[in-house]
Write a structure and sequence with these properties.
Blueprint (H helix, E strand, L loop, with lengths): L2 H11 E8 L4 E10 L2 H11 L2 E6 L9 E7 H11 L7 H19 L1 E5 L5 E6 L3 H17 L7
Antiparallel strand pairs: 1-2, 2-4, 3-4, 5-6
């Protein structure tokens, strides 16, 4: 399968989001694609890694089993970089997501870990510029707006 195919499939049956873990105070880039044909999602997994899960299973409703392919963090960013040139519907979201991934890498590279005597991390200090921190926050807001469901009034 080609990156063009993956992009078209993802435009139709995929989503890209910034998932927040409130407990840890972190935000992770995440990509998922859904389908009832697991074979197609296996092609995503072979090409880009990730995992496949059962998204829903309601045989009593007469539904087929639905599957979800998922990647996150660096793997998600790399996947998006491969399909970006061929996207139509999700192009703006993916552009933001790729930039988010780049900024997170910069943030990690500039973060100093403070450890106690036992070696456990007790604090972190990032030297990422205020402008880049603001850019990360802006991307989160824009992604939330772009992923909002319903009719825009």
């Amino acid at each position: 399968m080609t990156n063009e195919y993956f992009a078209g499939f993802f435009d139709a049956d995929g989503s890209v989001c910034l998932a927040t873990n409130n407990t840890r105070g972190t935000t992770t880039l995440q990509c998922v694609a859904y389908n009832s044909d697991k074979i197609v999602l296996e092609k995503f997994k072979q090409a880009f890694g990730g995992n496949i899960y059962i998204a829903h299973n309601y045989p009593e409703r007469g539904w087929k089993i639905g599957y979800r392919w998922s990647v996150s963090s660096k793997t998600a960013r790399e996947f998006l970089e491969h399909i970006f040139p061929y996207l139509i519907v999700k192009k703006e979201r993916v552009k933001l997501a790729i930039r988010f991934g780049e900024l997170i890498l910069e943030k990690r590279a500039s973060t100093k870990l403070i450890r106690n005597k036992k070696g456990h991390i007790i604090n972190q200090q990032s030297t990422l510029s205020e402008d880049k921190i603001r850019e990360l926050q802006d991307i989160k807001l824009k992604m939330t707006e772009l992923n909002r469901r319903g009719i825009l009034l």
